Fold this sequence. Notes:
By secondary structure, this protein is mainly α. It has a single domain, classed as A middle domain of Talin 1, CATH 1.20.1420.30. It has twelve helices and two strands. The protein has helices at residues 3-35, 39-64, 71-93, 100-120, 128-152, 157-164, 168-202, 207-218, 221-232, 236-262, 270-294, 299-310; strands spanning 125-126, 266-267.
Amino acid sequence: MNTELVILLFIIGLILIVKGGDFFVDAAVWIAKVSGIPNFIIGATIVSIATTMPELIVSLLAAGKGSVDMAAGNAVGSVTVNTAMIMGISILFMPAIVKRSQMAVKMLLMCASIAVLWIFSFNASLSIVESIIMICFYLFFIWENVRTTKQGMSSDQEKEEEKEKIDRRTVVVNAVKFILGVVGIVWGADLLVDNACILARNFGIPESIIGVTIISVGTSLPELVTTITAIVKKQSSLSVGNIIGANIIDLAVILPMCSIVSGKSLPVSAQMSGLDMPMCLVVCLIAVIPALFMKRFTKIQGGILLAVYAS
């Protein structure tokens, strides 16, 4: 493939993810507005499911073919990138107030998921029984979101009147924007990463460097695009909810489902259980504990997370 075509596809990918992110966040904010559901909950459920769906499909297809060796590393690596880099960027540029009633249980559940997964990894694998236990974490996460939503739903007259004014055309427009946004982000990310790798190889950049930069960031590109768009639109709680939801899906859905679909235990390397998982837990605790005590995320916290990721 000639360089000019690669550059063109790279630019098309960039345009797709930027515009897709714009549509996606607009539609998500609209859903939160008309339903009365807080932005954080929308981010933790609908948005996080949409941004992780491609990864889930690819992982399950690979597991069905027996390719599960990299599943644990991919999931833990994705959580580390999401929390240290993407959440770090979000709270550095737009610190958010933490509403404990909405966020506390969910953030602690994220930390508990990685802690339990770490304990399970001590025998160098994740069994099917342990996988089912991990899935229970996600079921509890969904239940907690439903409970919080019921408590937080606004019942004031102004909201009810606003809901009554919603016409079918508005619903259709925002549904189309949501779908186009997801497709744009996923397809654009694929074009961007694939062609960035080709360009890097053409310029003689080593495969090892490509792997730890373009590929590692590429797997979290949907969350990154959503976060940056949310920052621009001043919707930081949507971004934080998306990251926490995506992390729990990685740990408590994608990883255990790979084990169940493949019908065998997932191998966990010594480096994974001895270094990567505890580091991931530390990163999550840095993101969660200070915020719960101070009732807000701070720019210092965002800076620390980015520094940890850079190191």
